[in-house]
UniProtKB/TrEMBL annotation:
One of its GO terms (biological process) is double-strand break repair via break-induced replication. Residues 75-175 form the GINS subunit domain. InterPro entries: GINS_A (IPR021151), GINS_bundle-like_dom_sf (IPR036224), GINS_Psf2 (IPR007257), PSF2_N (IPR056784). It comes from Wolfiporia cocos (strain MD-104). The lineage of its organism: Eukaryota, Fungi, Dikarya, Basidiomycota, Agaricomycotina. This is DNA replication complex GINS protein PSF2.
Length: 189
């Protein structure tokens, strides 16, 4: 969502990608390396061809230096995404996806598309899923009630996108509901 900085009350997509980069992903190292300690934890040792888990930020760093292959998460494949797209377009509720699927997918497709089978098809499916979910979000927001909004299975990026609109709308709806109550109280006094 492109808003001027003065109106931005949420994190930017790049900031959400940075947060998502703390998630662990499997890699297949191409070089041997001893266990290395960082503030966030110790990772390794790396012994090719044995897989190991590490944060996405470290895996992408190694990938850019051609020192590993990243094993994509189980959900980042054509079959899984086609099934999720079918659910998104046929069922009224949001299908369950990893909370930070959009951010993780973007980082991995940007850095390690050669490690993902059919990356162009995966990108296309992710875009279709995003559009279907945005349509559901718009529909849900059009039915906004001053007492609650129920949109289960929303993901981090989607929550971030609707937050400014939702917060302002709920504030206005709350005021509108209170005003008639206040007027009724004034009539009885």
């Amino acid at each position: 969502m492109a808003l001027p900085p003065s109106l931005r009350t949420t994190a930017t997509p790049a900031e959400l990608e940075l947060i998502a980069s703390e998630q662990l992903v499997e890699i297949v190292p191409l070089v041997a390396m001893e266990r290395t300690a960082f503030i966030s934890g110790a990772y390794g040792p790396l012994r090719p061809p044995t897989k190991c888990k590490m944060p996405i930020w470290m895996a992408t760093n190694l990938k850019l230096k051609k020192k590993c292959h990243i094993v994509p998460p189980d959900w980042l494949n054509v079959e899984y995404l086609q099934e999720r797209l079918a659910r998104e377009t046929s069922e009224p509720e949001f299908s369950e996806l990893p909370f930070r699927f959009a951010e993780v997918a973007k980082v991995l497709l940007d850095v390690a598309s050669d490690d993902i089978s059919s990356p162009d098809k995966v990108r296309s499916l992710l875009q279709d899923i995003r559009e279907a979910r945005q349509a559901k979000s718009r529909e849900g927001l059009s039915k906004l009630d001053h007492s609650e909004l129920s949109l289960p299975n929303l993901c981090s990026m989607e929550i971030n996108e609707i937050r400014p609109f939702f917060v302002r709308s709920m504030s206005i709806l709350t005021q509108l509901v209170r005003e008639p109550e206040t007027r009724q109280m004034d009539q009885f006094e």
